[in-house]
Design a protein that fits this description.
alpha/beta, Rossmann fold, seven-stranded parallel beta sheet, two-stranded parallel sheet, 11 helices, 17% strand
Length: 328
């Protein structure tokens, strides 16, 4: 069934990815209900209606989902600092609330947005597929809570569901990956691990948004329903090359230092301890060190074949767009 032209609930529509998903959905003919804690910034579009509230509030979620035929569940607590109960409340219980509301509303398609970190325990991933979420084996409250949320969504049920794991999403206006890299470059704190030779893949924002909206029409397919897929550009490159290209595109001159894995991993453990005491995001964590030191790229063919989708913007074209945005 083609859902374009119907009513679509998007939770967590305020950020870079949420805004891009809403814009893509509207361009494809959807009427979008955007549910998040703060205005999406897109409600001046007649096709977008904001509902302000939390996904943990059953009444708010039920009101937002009324009249919708599909759900894209993006809302989540992200980051590496904070209390476990806060991550659990939003990412685990909130997902259950949204899924229950979808079941009660007879939703025809449920696209749950997760993260490759739900199945990453520090080892290298080379041409990997989407492995099962593993709450016990992952690092950090975010990854653990998202892994638990995946297990809830993928439990057998009557709502057609699919889980998508966009990998390292970036693009113009990104304050997470791009913003942090640029900030560290400007402060002289930009580093890679062991020369930055590890191959990683990333996802340009337009590709992530296009894949997510495209998946709404695929959840009933036996090749898709009840499965998890990694979304990426399918263009792995060394960490140092990607970091350097982003810095250059943003017009920043920086020296990228190389730090050995052992001392960096030890510093990450200390950073996590200090961050827990100060309630501030640490400069370095063990998870960050592992991400920079180990290869993590995925075979894109299972995703491309099952979803019948391909990236629409290459890595190099994305960098050109980032440079144009930075110069505007």
């Amino acid at each position: 069934m083609t859902h374009g032209g119907g009513r679509l609930l998007v939770t967590g529509g305020r950020g870079l990815l949420g805004n891009a998903v809403i814009a893509t959905a509207v361009a494809q003919g959807w009427k979008v209900v955007a549910l998040q804690r703060h205005p999406s910034g897109l409600a001046d579009n007649a096709a977008v209606t904001d509902v302000i509230g939390s996904i943990t509030d059953e009444e708010v979620v039920e009101r937002a989902i009324t009249g919708c035929s599909a759900v894209i569940h993006l809302a989540a607590r992200v980051g590496i600092e904070g209390r476990w109960r806060d991550f659990e409340d939003v990412n685990v219980r909130g997902t259950q609330v949204v899924l229950d509301a979808a079941r009660g509303a007879g939703i025809e398609s449920f696209v749950h947005i997760s993260s490759p970190s739900v199945a990453h325990a520090g080892r290298a991933l080379v041409g990997a597929e989407a492995e099962p979420a593993d709450p016990r084996g992952v690092r950090g409250h975010y990854s653990r809570s998202k892994a638990m949320a995946e297990q809830i969504v993928l439990a057998p049920g009557d709502v057609p569901v699919v889980v998508l794991r966009p990998h390292l999403v970036w693009g113009p206006g990104d304050e997470q990956l791009v913003g942090r890299i640029v900030a560290r470059a400007r402060s002289g704190r930009l580093f890679v691990i062991d020369g930055g030779r590890a191959l990683i893949d990333t996802t340009y924002i337009d590709n992530a948004a296009h894949a997510i909206v495209h998946a709404v029409d695929k959840t009933s397919s036996p090749l898709v329903r009840g499965r998890a897929f990694v979304i990426s550009n399918g263009e792995p490159r060394p960490v140092r090359d990607i970091v350097g290209a982003i810095v250059q595109a943003c017009g920043v001159s920086a020296v990228i230092r190389s730090v050995p894995f052992g001392p960096a991993f030890a510093a990450g453990a200390v950073g996590e301890w200090v961050g827990a005491l100060s309630h501030r995001e640490p400069l370095i964590t063990r998870f960050l060190v592992e991400q920079l030191a180990t290869a993590h790229w995925f075979d894109p063919r299972p995703t491309w074949d099952a979803l019948e989708w391909r990236p629409v913007v290459s890595l190099d074209e994305g960098l050109r767009r980032l440079a144009a945005h930075s110069q505007s």
